[in-house]
Amino acid sequence: GRRGAEGAMAGQEDRHSWKSDSPLRDDHPSRLLLLHHHWLHLSRHRLFFYIKFAISRLRRSARIHLIQSFEQHNSRRT
């Protein structure tokens, strides 16, 4: 009986150690690495999108500014 109890305890310990090495745990290095890599990929994609967005916004505002100054120049001439 006692040996069976010890075996059960050892089994629990093994299961526990397996769980602690599982990548599904939040503080597991490989999970952190995965999350970090995923975040890097996301942020790089988002950064690219933001840069594109900013450039298009700048272009649009520059175009509007150019058109306005051109119209002001024209209206000043007449």
If you had to describe this structure to a student in words, what would you say it looks like?
By secondary structure, the chain is mainly alpha-helical. The chain has one domain (2-77). It has helices spanning 2-20, 29-77. The chain starts with a helix and ends with a helix.
Helical segment tally?
A: 2
Along the chain, the helix and strand elements come as HH
The largest sheet, given as strand count, sense and whether it forms a barrel, is: none
Average pLDDT taken over every residue: 73
Outline, from the CA principal axes? rod-shaped
| Rg for CA atoms | 31 Å
- Structure classification: mainly alpha
Q: Which regions contain 5 or more consecutive residues with pLDDT less than 50? A: 13-18
- List how many beta strands DSSP finds: 0
Helix content: over 70%
Approximately what portion of the residues adopt beta-strand conformation? under 5%
Please indicate the count of domains.
1
Give the distance, in angstroms, between the N- and C-terminal Cα atoms.
108 Å
Key attributes of the depicted protein:
about 85% helix; about 80 residues; mainly alpha; about 0% strand; rod-shaped
Task: Lay out the secondary structure.
Blueprint: H1 2-20, H2 29-77
How would you briefly describe this protein structure?
This protein has one domain.
